[in-house]
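Onboarding guide, step 5: your first structure request.
Type a short instruction followed by the sequence, for example:

Predict the 3D structure of this protein.
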Amino acid sequence: MNVLWKKIEQSSLRTWPALHSKKLAGWDIRLSDGYSKRSNSVSTLDYEEEETTLEEQIAYCEADYHSVQLPVVFKMTSFTQPSTLDHILNKRGYQIQDETRVQLKSLAAINEEVEQYKDSKKESLSKLTFTIQEQWSEEWIRQASALGEWSDQVGQSIAKLMNVNTLPKAYITVYQAQQPVACAIGIVDSEYMGIYDVITGTAYRRQGLAKAMLYHLMQWAKVKGALYTYLHVGEHNKIAIELYRNLGFEEMYRYWYRVLLEK
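The system replies with structure tokens like these:
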């Protein structure tokens, strides 16, 4: 197993926590009222052999999710343990969903990068204002919900997850003509920052707002002691993949979910 990949995956479990979790044979069974597969799935990063069989352990997970009326979801990577799990889940009727790239960027030269970027974008940047709030903000979630066209339930679920997360956080918003136009969350876990919920309002896309916002967020992370930043991007989100490539992110590994198709 690649040591760096495992460290990133471990960090992502901490930066985006679950409301409830418990261990089974090294796996982490994560439950969070159904919002996002990331916090409502079985993390298969580690595995410890026990007296029960692998099939029995899978059945235990299925019963756990069924008991709270949630879909049964396993998060899979190329380094999932045990290595036979993906094949077994496929035979049990689990479907692959949401293939995702995990990308990483060093923050070693971020200040120099940002200065060069600012020099080349002085006019457009002069029209923007950036705010970072390090404490939970109802204003931020209202703005994010409007930009992302989220339901009230999504906003409430994110609030719950962030309130159980004690790591340093940045809730960043970009304003143009005093109107919120983009936002994101950055969460620092030792030498890493995880970036989540990168949103640009529909009417403001393809204007470089996300790039400007992420540069601002990465500078904040470096001040907080982060050396690297990572994010997750859907396999089919070509626009975001291109954005992150231009920012210097490099793909580390991919993950996908195995979701049980109920009969």
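Each response can be followed by summary notes, for example: Residues 38 and 190 are 21 Å apart (CA to CA).
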